[in-house]
Give the backbone structure.
Amino acid sequence: MTSQTIQRRSSWSPTERREYLKGLVFISPWLIGFAAFVLYPIIASLYYSFTYYDLLRPPRFIGLENYREILFQDQFAGKVLYNTVYYVLLAVPLGTIVAFLLASLLNTRLVGRSFFRAIFFVPSIVPVVSSAMVWLWIFNTQYGVIDSTLASLGLPVIPFLSSPEWAKPSFIIIHCWSSGGAMLIFLASLRDVPMSLYDAAKVDGAASWARFRHITIPMCTPAILFSVLTGIIGAFQYFAFAWILTRGGPNGATEFYSVYLYRNAFSFLKMGYAAALAWILFLIVMAVTMAVFRSSARWVYYGGSTD
Amino acid sequence: MTTHKIATDTIPVLAARGTTRRRWLNSARLWAGCGWVARHVLAVALGMLFALPLVWALLTSLKTNAQVYVVPPKWIPDPVVWSNYPEALTRVPFLRYMFNTVKVTIPSVIGAVLSNTIVAYGFARIRWRHRNIFFIVCISTMMIPYQVIMVPLFITFKKLGWLNTYLPLIVPAFFASPYFIFLLRQFFMTIPAELSDAARVDGCSEWMILTRIIVPLSVPALAVVALFEFMGTWGDYLGALLYLGREELYTVAIGLSRYQAGGWSQANWSYLMAASVTSIAPILLLFFVAQRTFIEGITLTGLKG
């Protein structure tokens, strides 16, 4: 980043003015898109959240009624929030751990490394719907690979998507299966850890687990933070799999926040209610992201590697 | 051509290729204690586990119905029913869906590459006051849950009469997106400022610098943008679900769900798997052709981010 000559706020050299204009012109596609597809919708949704709007009649102002209903009267909303938090608390850590362990395995001398890397990565680029269909078949209680094998061995069958207890864990399994993207980021991060640290540790007699715990993990904390943050933001918006595989069932066990929101907006046509739900989600995600970010000062170590 | 040579010498990413191999090959960490055999056994076991779902889908797609609905599961189809594919892909107009998806994807990719390059240039290669503030605003929009803008956006598109067209899916791509802006900006910033300055001294306009210097040097990064935009659009479910009501417009994502007629238990699984495999195939192909681009793309954002 180049340093700019310190100038009083009010004086603009012709060059500065010209550069400013150029800058704005170049970012104008984003600026216009931001105004139209982000800023306007955000303000509009805030407005809608204070109305009753079913698309048939114009929005009717009802003040904080939507929020009051969500927070104090809607019992389903509580369950929905529980489902979502359950998913976030399990899927994000497990997904990160799986990705990290896979990356560290790939970081060793392996015959056919790129082959394994491809196998672990490909699940993350499979289109969501296709992936959903495949897993729907795998989780099939009668003829899916897993249950069919269990049944033939005389073992109890696992009702993956048809029981409230197993439905959310099934989604978490799918999530861990497709954590190849994070794995690649960790792989790159692992490769950036300076060799000298390991050499020094070996000289001091550190065992491999100790080296992993005290060198590898700490040096990768920036990547871990990135993965956790994006994971949390994504997990709170989890929609496609739940909608395709279980439609929020069984018995509301997989009615995640986004599913409930979608249902309110497009099934019940309660646009105002959905908007209020969206804003509450926004605030929750903001709060959690801030909290994680704040805490990161204590456990993230920057200034590793090559910069 | 000398510009390119100077660039390769001074840009670390381009120069470092081929030197990293030695570094990590010597440094097995957590798994070092496990021994060569154990590591490979683990790798093979995990590999089989991760490959199972897709392999199983492929196998199922080639079975007769009798061999699909069988306990315990029959692994190798015998006979191999290749005809499942043409049957599955015509029972529902799947090829039309794929063509529709292409109709959405290609313009989106073009739009994404064009707009993000221009915007990232503005954020990376021009020094202007308040640039950072705008950039921070840009990046922070990534944290906004899609659900917040989903409802008003739908209403807006409805009022514009864009429902049941591809416009809501294509047009936003032409207005740049924070993820790609960030990625390209990071990349543009690794190009030495001297190149731009020298060109400016020679009287080049910013546009000329962008098109004649920056873009040719950034082809790998642009390839990443194109690839990821393609992937995102090809597999987009929610967008298609929201805006495409008429059956003739369906994309692959929605079309795939048409294979279930009257509930899941009546779905013809081998057909569904055949269609699923067909929908995955282009992505897989792309991956094997452009593996390096994929991997660079993901690490470019995740690392210095």
